């Protein structure tokens, strides 16, 4: 394994270059995430912040953690966000109506509280002290170190959180799932129904719309061999709405007469 | 000296040169494999394939590449310009990065410097490949979204859903390998297969990986993301010229990357075939490169073979196969392998191991029999129901004499 952090405690040249290049990029992306208008751009910038965080983890000898950060957060969680953003649509804007009473006040209190927590934590950071214990922790490799902590000391917290997440996932699935009372009417059933109930002449399906080579759109009924329009060839909705074009003007009669 | 220590001693110019070489080899192999694919598929369909440009049409792919580069580069009006340009770049970068941890040779003399042909040897190398693959999906999703039209969006969604769900099966198939190799580093996994390839030892894992790698690369029969009949070209419908070429390149490099990973994890990597170990010393160790690429190109041939043989799956069947067949089988297999491994490590008596394997086999056969019996029952019910079938108008059986209408 390449040692990115060459001497533990002192920041080696490569690591500091990495930091000074990536840290501003990361912060710019984080601020941009709040400022850009389109939701997809904001999601992308957040993904970038996560990738840079993963690189910082790797630079600080937490290789396994960094890789897992990319797999889980960038690969799975952000991808899910992106999926939903795309399905919801690009042009939809956030509704500003308060659905739950007093939500705004609660949100502001939570934001101030969380901000205060962050500020107090970050302000307690100290500089210039040697880092102790990293090599002991990583003695058997980063993956093994994390595994030991996770499955011995924090096993209870780990299990509680995982069962909570599973409950949430199952709950979401139950809420979103709707039981079908009848079996779905599929292509095969349609085909069988055509033969069983309808007339045999409809068995091959309805005629398609349009007058060949002259006006091929859905709003023109097809012409039968007799020269009459076929009513089954276009949607009844179009007819009711008055969006149907008369197909008689596409008949060839006139031109034939002119030829004579 | 281990691979990691050898690579750790590389001076900067060696690392840079290795990177350039890997890039060049990947691009060259892409060009050659496009030609190879067209020739092989043609042979399977009883055509001759490209044979005009150069000997055997060898330069066809190169000429096509030049043509592609000279085409007009269009950006649709409705497209999101920035994301539209970034998407192919993400896609291409990601697939090349996967090659960084693949060991291509054993110890060789590289311009007077003893090293191995591997950019870096991470202790979680295989996970790194998975991470890079999950970043590569962004290229597809963003390409689909940023094109600002319907077919690419649908193609992008399909393709990313496919890649993500088959990545789960792929990741699970690797767990058995990690358990047996005792490591997630690619070079140590190769070393662990010194006596027996994991393709033999962990055959179900190998099969699951092989299936999911076809799903992961969006290749036939799992190429629903660019089903021409439904979605025009899928996520890259709106792309043209060099941007399209980048997607094309990334598709083929991706195939090579998953094949290379399969070679490393299951077929002993750069090691020679069993019984031909003496060839590993030929050309000062460089002959291992030949073994590596023989295996990778073997996988590539299978990819082409599948494309020439199998029809495309329906989307819901494909997803059902991934989630309801591959993943549960993977999980059951991992449980079995892990239990067996722990038994061996703790020195369980042979009788216990035997009883365990035997009872698992009995359970497996029991489930199989029940499933078979259910199938027979369903078939019988269908046969008995036959009388209620509608009498469809059946076309005339063509052994009767036809009347001549035109005289």
From TrEMBL, chain A:
Does the keyword Transmembrane helix belong to this entry? Answer: yes
Give the InterPro entries listed for this entry: NADH_UbQ/plastoQ_OxRdtase_su6, Nuo/plastoQ_OxRdtase_6_NuoJ
- Keywords annotated in UniProt: Membrane, Transmembrane, Transmembrane helix
Listed GO MF terms: NADH dehydrogenase (ubiquinone) activity
TM segment ranges: 17-36, 43-60, 66-90, 102-122, 154-176
Output the NCBIfam families linked to this UniProt entry.
Answer: PRK06638.1-5 (NF005165)
Q: Which PANTHER family match?
A: NADH-QUINONE OXIDOREDUCTASE SUBUNIT J, NADH-UBIQUINONE OXIDOREDUCTASE CHAIN 6
Name-wise, this protein is Unannotated protein
Task: Tell me what organism the protein belongs to.
Answer: freshwater metagenome
UniProtKB/TrEMBL annotation, chain B:
Does the keyword field hold Transmembrane? Answer: yes
Q: How does it sit in the membrane?
A: Multi-pass membrane protein
Where found in the cell?
Membrane
- Name the Pfam families for this protein: NADHdh
InterPro entries associated with the record? NADH_UbQ_OxRdtase_su1/FPO, NADH_UbQ_OxRdtase_su1_CS
Q: Which PROSITE patterns match?
A: COMPLEX1_ND1_1, COMPLEX1_ND1_2
Keyword Ribosomal protein assigned to the entry: answer is no
One example of a Gene Ontology biological process annotation: aerobic respiration
Q: Which GO terms describe its cellular component?
A: membrane
The portions of this protein that span the membrane are: 12-35, 82-102, 122-143, 164-184, 196-214, 244-270, 282-305, 325-344, 350-371
Recall the GO molecular function terms of this protein's record.
NADH dehydrogenase activity
- Recite the UniProt keywords alphabetically: Membrane, Transmembrane, Transmembrane helix
Recorded protein name is Unannotated protein
The species is freshwater metagenome
């Amino acid at each position: 394994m390449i040692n990115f952090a060459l001497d533990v405690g002192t920041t080696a040249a490569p690591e500091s270059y990495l930091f000074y290049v990536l840290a501003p990029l990361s912060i710019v992306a984080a601020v941009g995430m709040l400022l850009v208008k389109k939701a997809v751009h904001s999601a992308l910038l957040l993904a970038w912040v996560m990738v840079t965080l993963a690189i910082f983890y790797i630079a600080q000898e937490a290789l396994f953690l960094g890789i897992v950060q990319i797999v889980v957060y960038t690969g799975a969680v952000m991808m899910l966000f992106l999926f939903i953003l795309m399905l919801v649509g690009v042009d939809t804007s956030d509704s500003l109506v308060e659905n739950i009473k007093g939500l705004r006040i609660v949100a502001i209190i939570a934001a101030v509280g969380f901000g205060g927590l962050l500020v107090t934590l970050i302000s307690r950071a100290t500089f210039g002290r040697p880092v102790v214990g990293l090599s002991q922790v990583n003695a058997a490799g980063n993956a093994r170190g994390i595994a030991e902590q996770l499955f011995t000391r924090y096993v209870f917290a780990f299990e509680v959180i995982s069962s909570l997440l599973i409950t949430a996932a199952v709950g979401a699935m139950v809420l979103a799932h709707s039981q079908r009372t009848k079996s779905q009417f599929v292509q095969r059933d349609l085909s069988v129904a055509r033969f069983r109930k309808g007339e045999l002449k409809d068995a091959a399906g309805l005629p398609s719309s349009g007058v060949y080579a002259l006006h091929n759109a859905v709003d023109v009924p097809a012409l039968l061999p007799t020269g009459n329009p076929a009513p089954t060839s276009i949607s009844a909705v179009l007819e009711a709405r008055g969006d149907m074009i008369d197909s008689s003007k596409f008949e060839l009669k006139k031109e034939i007469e002119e030829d004579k | 000296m281990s691979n990691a220590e050898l690579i750790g001693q590389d001076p900067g110019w060696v690392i840079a040169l290795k990177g350039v070489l890997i890039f060049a080899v990947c691009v060259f192999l892409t060009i050659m494999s496009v030609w190879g694919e067209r020739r092989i598929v043609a042979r399977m369909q009883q055509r001759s394939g490209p044979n005009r440009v150069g000997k055997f049409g060898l330069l066809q792919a190169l000429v096509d590449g030049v043509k592609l580069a000279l085409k007009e580069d269009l950006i649709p009006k409705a497209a999101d310009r920035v994301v539209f340009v970034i998407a192919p770049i993400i896609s291409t970068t990601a697939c090349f990065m996967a090659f960084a941890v693949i060991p291509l040779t054993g110890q060789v003399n590289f311009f007077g410097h003893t090293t191995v042909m591997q950019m870096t040897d991470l202790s979680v190398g295989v996970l790194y490949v998975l991470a890079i693959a999950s970043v590569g999906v962004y290229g597809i999703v963003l390409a689909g979204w940023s094109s600002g039209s319907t077919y690419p969006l649908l193609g992008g969604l399909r393709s990313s859903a496919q890649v993500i769900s088959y990545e789960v099966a792929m990741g699970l198939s690797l767990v058995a390998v990690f358990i047996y190799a005792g490591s997630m580093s690619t070079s140590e996994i190769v070393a662990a297969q010194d006596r027996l390839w994991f393709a033999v030892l962990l055959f179900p894992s190998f099969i699951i990986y092989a299936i999911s790698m076809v799903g992961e690369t969006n290749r036939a029969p799992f190429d629903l993301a660019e089903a021409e009949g439904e979605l025009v070209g899928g996520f890259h419908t709106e792309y043209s010229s060099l941007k399209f070429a980048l997607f094309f390149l990334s598709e083929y490099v991706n195939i090579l990357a998953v094949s290379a990973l399969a070679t490393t994890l299951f077929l002993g990597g750069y090691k020679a075939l069993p019984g031909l170990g003496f060839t590993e010393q030929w050309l000062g160790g460089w002959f291992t490169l030949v073994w590596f690429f023989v295996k990778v190109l073997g996988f590539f041939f299978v990819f082409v073979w599948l494309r020439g043989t199998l029809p495309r799956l329906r989307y819901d069947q494909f997803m059902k196969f991934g989630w309801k067949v591959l993943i549960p089988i993977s999980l059951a297999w991992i449980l079995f392998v892990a239990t067996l491994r722990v038994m061996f490590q703790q020195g369980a008596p042979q009788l216990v191991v035997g009883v365990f394997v035997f009872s698992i086999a009995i359970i497996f056969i029991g489930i199989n029999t029940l499933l078979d019996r259910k199938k027979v029952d369903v078939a019988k019910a269908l046969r008995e129901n036959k009388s209620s079938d509608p009498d469809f108008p059946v076309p005339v059986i063509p052994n009767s004499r036809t009347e001549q209408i035109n005289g």
